[in-house]
Amino acid sequence: MPTWTTLSIFLLAALGLLFIPGPAVLFVMTKSVDQGRRVGAVSSLGIGIADLIHTTAAAFGLSALLVTSALAFNVVKYLGAAYLIYLGIRTLLKRDTPRQTVSEAPQSLTRLFTQGMFVELLNPKTALFFLAFLPQFVDPAQGNVTLQFLLLGSLYTILGICSLTFYGLIAGTTAALLKRSTTFQRVQRYITGCIYIALGLTAAFASTEKK
After folding, report:
1. What pTM value is reported for the model?
2. Where do transmembrane segments lie in this chain (predicted)?
3. Rounded to whole angstroms, how far apart are CA atoms 71 and 192?
C-alpha cells in the first residue's frame, strides 16, 4: 500500500485539481441551477460512479486499450459529445414553467444520476487523466499495483463527489433565490442549454493527442 507520505502528497494534488472548475463542475453547477441542489448532488454521485469505473478500467489495463485505439477513442468521444448536445437542445426546447422549481426531481433522480454517469463515462479524456495521474503515486515496491490503483482512484472519487456537491450547493442556493422570476427562468434555460451544447462541441473537437 502507498506510504503515508505518498498518500498525503496525492491528497493535496487531488484537492488542487478538483477545485479547479472543469467540465464536470460546470455540468453539476448547470444542473443545480436548472433543477435544484439535490439534483446537483445526484449528478455528482453519478459522475463519481463513472470515475470509479474509469479507475477500475485503468487498474486492469482496459483504459490503455481505449487510449491506444484511435477508433475506440473517437467513438466514445463523439458519443459523449452528442449526448451533451442532445441535453442542450432538449433544455432549449423546454417550456417555461413559472414557480415550478424542483417538484419533478424526486421522480427522475435515477435518470439524472444516469445522465451524470454517462456524461463522465463517455469522456475519454477522463480515462487519459487516470492513466496519467494515478501511476505517479503507485509504487510496485509497496505492494499490489492494482490495489494501489483502486485505493487512490477511490480516494480521488470520494474527494471529487464532495467538491462537485460543494459547487452544486453554491449554484443551487444562488439560483433558488432568483427562481421566482419568470425572466430569470427564461434566461437560465437559454444559458443552460448553451452550456450543454458548448461542452458537447468542446468534447467533440478536443484533440485526441496525449499530453
Report:
1. 0.76
2. 6-29, 41-65, 71-93, 113-134, 154-178, 190-208
3. 31
